[in-house]
């Protein structure tokens, strides 16, 4: 059990930054200092608990941890939330920010202020958080602290005298940062005597205990034995256990106003818990719910099907459990002639899609096929009706379409001026319209483009990083829908269209995309005993073709010497057999073939 700490000695804060600026490493130093984990159990990136996070070296899920600290001779309790940096997981960041009073804004001493640094700062200011700017990685040989201080003042509008210098790796400046957190971040407001008002900011599923709800208590208190009520559906539950996050779950007697913790209340129905909901008590209700979170808007759509149709029920259960832990995942039931029953899903970006796929395969042991991703287009029919099209299968016949509109984004790219030329060329190739160019200092430029979201889906981010040697950073926000000449591109394998590989593309790029797709399929589909044509088609017009050569057994291997007609006879006999085989030959597509087209690597 944890002994109580005065509310004035509680601090709730999160660490926000661009990708790879050292958030998880800094969190490690805090955890080590609080001694909540024995040295023998400690390992780097302790809060990145998923295998996929450790392998990719990125944070995907916001993780909360409660750390008791002695600072200046007094006991404090710090509730830290480590957040992701990638633009696809900005929804996780917004949820973390909603449960805090302050934020540590990390800036890499070598990279400086980048695109996500700006958008995370705006998010923190929007929620009235106290922001502590920190320059991290000061021990790097390439560290340029003077330049970073200038960028913090010039780009972010923050006072450079408030900036702290730390090295998360070496542990330099951690004590000063902890003192600044105590001094600058206000303690939580809200009284323990007021009605219970708590925000659900996350949750996960335990097969033995049901749904474990992660909450931030804004007023009142909550104890085992209390009856609670969920605001959005009025469901009531008896609380079995309350506790805090100390890497593992640690039971406590009570959660008071200002605390971040978890409750277990025997919630077996996954749909009853909604992230952003307010928890109160039926006998002493709060008058208004907490604002919660903005409704998430998916930007990339793809269908997920089990490889074995018998696994469909397992997929339903897996999607429900994953939705509990990833509130930004949107899905509805779908079916396909080729792949059977599955789900049409909405994601926040391509990395989000890859992560969801990997989590379903690893955590729930499923074998999956994903269709080529698409964006939500608005199509006006000749009758005047406007429909939303998320998938190529929903696209009406070309003769019925009056106008198609696709989503546009406002893309902000911060790059060293050395790479400005390749950046402008890349954005122009992706149908971008340049709107602004701002020199942030003598060597860094911010360029702003309006461009179609569909062009950013596949290889844009990889191209951006390779063209700028990793120095350019990218952030975007959705604008509106604008007219586009859309066509439905079908991929035919052995003359049959594979609906899971169909895609909606801009007519001007259709030939390139078709060639790229059939080229990748040629490399992925194993050779058969007969020739397999791979074609890209728009309606009845073939615009790209590759052929997978037949596997040919050497039927003349044992035919030594003699007249050439003996060999010819054997070869002709083989040809006849292959013709017959082709008429009945079905081609099985391996999962890697779907993934190759999905990733959309540019044409060789």
Characterization of the model:
The chain has 604 residues and is of the alpha+beta class. It has five domains: 7-184, Rossmann fold (3-Layer(aba) Sandwich), CATH 3.40.50.300; 197-280, Beta Barrel (Elongation Factor Tu (Ef-tu), domain 3), CATH 2.40.30; 300-370, Elongation Factor G (Translational Gtpase), domain 3 (Alpha-Beta Plaits), CATH 3.30.70.870; 399-484, 2-Layer Sandwich (Alpha-Beta Plaits), CATH 3.30.70; 487-599, Alpha-Beta Plaits (2-Layer Sandwich), CATH 3.30.70. It contains 13 helices and 31 strands. It has an eight-stranded antiparallel β-sheet with strand order 11-10-16-7-8-15-12-13. Strands 2-3-1-4-5-6 form a six-stranded mixed β-sheet, sandwiched between helices. Strands 21, 22, 23, 24, 25 and 26 form a six-stranded antiparallel β-sheet that branches. The longest helix has 21 residues, at 564-584. The protein is globular, with a radius of gyration of 28 Å. Mean pLDDT is 76; it is low at 45-54.
Categorize the overall geometry.
globular
Distance N to C terminus: 61 Å
Low-confidence segments: 45-54
* Helix percentage range: 25-40%
**Percentage of residues in strands:** 25-35%
Count the helices. How many?
Answer: 13
CATH architectural category of the largest domain: 3-Layer(aba) Sandwich
User: Given this structure, which CATH class of the largest domain is correct?
Assistant: Alpha Beta
Average of the residue pLDDT scores: 76
**CATH fold-level assignment of the largest domain:** Rossmann fold
Q: How many structural domains can be distinguished in the coordinates?
A: 5
Give the strand tally: 31
Per CATH, the superfamily of the largest domain is: P-loop containing nucleotide triphosphate hydrolases
**SS-based class:** alpha+beta
Radius of gyration: 28 Å
Going across the biggest sheet, name each strand in turn: 11-10-16-7-8-15-12-13
Largest sheet, in brief, is: 8 strands, antiparallel
